[in-house]
């Protein structure tokens, strides 16, 4: 089958803050070498090539700038129409391609050496850049996102504001910083996105996919935030958590509504001691709650159950009456009227038992003598 060898290269150019894979040349089976101009290297007209399995492997193979890979792709009719006219001339999007001689072997070796040097240089620069990004990210005032603890849209807005504050503007740097602030299952999503996007590091795509994946469409978080109320423990801790839950779900809530919802979940005996007219900010409410914290602790201690004392007044059944067949009676055995009679019976039983033992011993002694 006729085939054309297409050479792919990842360039060192920075365009819109991202790297890209470029188709730079075509080599035919007759060893003719055609150059593709720079403005056409990433043209969407290469779609027939982009859809091949070989190109998918190229995307997975080329990970660093200046890397070069060449593959043979079957010359189908559709591909032939894209790159050759009816007379066999190399043409692309209406422009005849420049034919060039294959570079001599010595030049190729020299180019390969230079490429390796450039790759090493870029690799070192990449390491330094990532280290700088990580150090900068340590200064962020932002909690890690695990998919459950935050509203995705609001968290993303906070993330971007921190990036702007610390001048992280490049798409690749934002994506690398995002990885640092993801936790639990979100790291799996990040790895999957990285495999899908490879070097097409467009922050807009990552942001869109993140919000699409983790934006809550149900009412569960809203219901939980509204219904959260004080049960036990610190009043101040309750108020802070309530505010956090409400702002995570409804960041643009006005101050008055926020204060009212926090107060709604507070104990009635606490609200009765706070003058509503004096509260204009949540900090005012926190100050008043802090002054009344001791009341909540006192109530908590007052609600502790005192262990039940053993009931010493409970009547107990008399065993003496039961032994003498006098029926079931309830009184202390020390005051039982049949106590003396029971003692005599016990002594009599003991005497009878002792007499029987003596007779048995005498009989055993006589038997021993006869033997």
The strand line-up of the biggest sheet is: 4-1-2-3-7
What class do helices, strands and sheet pairing give?
A: alpha+beta
- Mean pLDDT value: 75
Order of helices and strands: EEEHHEHEEEHHHHHHHHHHHHH
**Net shape:** elongated
State the helicity in percent bands.
Answer: 40-55%
Beta-strand percent range: 5-15%
- How many helices? The count is 16
The Cα radius of gyration reads 45 Å
Q: What does the largest sheet look like?
A: 5 strands, antiparallel
Low-confidence stretches: 104-110
Instruction: Report how far the terminal alpha carbons are from each other.
Output: 124 Å
The number of distinct β-strands equals 7
How many separate structural domains? 3
Q: Topology, pairings included?
A:
Layout: E1 3-10, E2 21-27, E3 33-35, H1 47-50, H2 53-61, E4 68-74, H3 77-83, E5 91-92, E6 95-96, E7 98-100, H4 105-137, H5 152-165, H6 171-180, H7 186-197, H8 203-214, H9 220-227, H10 235-249, H11 255-264, H12 268-271, H13 282-291, H14 293-302, H15 319-323, H16 339-370
Antiparallel strand pairs: 1-2, 1-4, 2-3, 3-7, 5-6
Please, could you describe this protein's structure?
- The protein has 371 residues and is of the alpha+beta class.
- The chain folds into three domains: 5-99, no CATH class; 129-214, no CATH class; 219-299.
- It is 53% helix and 9% strand.
- It is built from 16 helices and seven strands.
- It has helices at residues 47-50, 53-61, 77-83, 105-137, 152-165, 171-180, 186-197, 203-214, 220-227, 235-249, 255-264, 268-271, 282-291, 293-302, 319-323, 339-370, and strands at residues 3-10, 21-27, 33-35, 68-74, 91-92, 95-96, 98-100.
- It has a five-stranded antiparallel sheet, covered by helices on one side. A two-stranded antiparallel ribbon has the order 5-6.
- The longest helix is centred in the first third of the chain and has 33 residues, at 105-137.
- Residues 104-110 have low confidence and may be disordered.
- This is Retrotransposon gag domain-containing protein.
- It comes from Bracon brevicornis.
């Amino acid at each position: 089958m006729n085939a054309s060898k297409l050479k792919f290269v990842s360039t060192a150019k920075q365009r819109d803050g991202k790297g890209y894979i470029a188709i730079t040349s075509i080599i035919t089976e007759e060893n003719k070498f055609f150059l593709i101009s720079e403005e056409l290297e990433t043209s969407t007209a290469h779609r027939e090539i982009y859809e091949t399995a070989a190109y998918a492997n190229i995307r997975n193979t080329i990970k660093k700038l200046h890397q070069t890979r060449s593959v043979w792709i079957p010359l189908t009719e559709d591909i032939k129409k894209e790159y050759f006219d009816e007379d066999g001339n190399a043409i692309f999007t209406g422009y005849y391609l420049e034919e060039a001689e294959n570079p001599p072997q010595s030049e190729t070796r020299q180019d390969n050496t230079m490429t390796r040097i450039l790759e090493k240089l870029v690799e070192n620069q990449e390491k330094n850049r990532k280290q700088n990004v990580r150090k900068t990210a340590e200064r962020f005032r932002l909690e890690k996102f695990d998919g459950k603890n935050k509203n995705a849209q609001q968290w993303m807005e906070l993330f971007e504001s921190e990036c702007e504050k610390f001048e992280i503007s490049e798409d690749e740097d934002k994506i690398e910083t995002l990885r640092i602030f993801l936790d639990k299952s979100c790291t799996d999503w990040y790895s999957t996105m990285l495999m899908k996007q490879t070097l097409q590091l467009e922050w807009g795509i990552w942001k869109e996919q993140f919000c699409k994946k983790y934006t809550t469409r149900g009412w569960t978080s809203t219901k939980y935030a509204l219904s959260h109320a004080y049960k036990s423990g610190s009043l101040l801790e309750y108020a802070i958590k309530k505010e956090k839950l409400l702002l995570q779900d409804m960041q643009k809530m006005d101050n008055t509504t926020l204060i009212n919802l926090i107060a709604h979940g507070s104990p009635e005996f606490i609200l009765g001691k706070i003058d509503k007219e004096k509260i204009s900010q949540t900090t005012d409410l926190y100050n008043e709650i802090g002054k009344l914290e001791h009341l909540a602790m006192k109530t908590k201690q007052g609600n502790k159950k005192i262990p039940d004392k053993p009931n010493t007044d409970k009547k107990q059944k008399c065993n003496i009456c039961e032994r003498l067949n006098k029926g079931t009676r309830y009184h202390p055995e020390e005051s039982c009227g049949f106590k003396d009679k029971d003692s005599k019976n016990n002594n009599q039983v003991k005497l009878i038992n002792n007499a029987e033992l003596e007779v048995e011993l005498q009989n055993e002694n006589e038997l021993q003598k006869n033997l």
